[in-house]
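Slide 14.
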Amino acid sequence: MSSKYLHRRIRAFSTFCALATGILLGPAMALADPVPESIAVNVDQAKLVKLPSRVSTIVVGNPLIADVTLQPGGLIVVTGKGYGATNFIAMDRAGEVLVDRVIQVEGPTDQLVTIYRGIERESYSCMPICQRRVTLGDGSSYFKAAMDQAGNLSNQASSAASKATN
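Slide 15: predicted structure.
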């Protein structure tokens, strides 16, 4: 057998194997679930996840940990509300479960500095300078003071914007 003939046979066999693999695995790959097994999101942040377009109902195990909002076309917005893990179930109009996944909500990823004063805790985001950052678990007086300041700032901005449009 010549080496040219042998080379053609090996190439033909390789092509056959590639086609057979595509035929056998193609349907499995087409049916593969594109939604990750577990969805990780940081607290106070959101993540977009694509689900099958026929999803019509979303159920969240613990809405204190995560919020899931269904958008048109099967897109969901997963928002981390509190630390921990929960799940969500996506169903079609007939009630068939299409997706059942775990949502893992983790802590902030910014440069966080935590100060403890006895049992009271304060959080600061230090990017590039340290400023107050309200985080779950902060002491109630610190949390309230920071939220009051944020509310006052928001009210002033709304008031200024409405005066500018009048």
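Speaker note: Strands lie at 38-42, 46-50, 57-60, 66-71, 75-80, 84-91, 97-106, 112-117, 120-126, 130-132.
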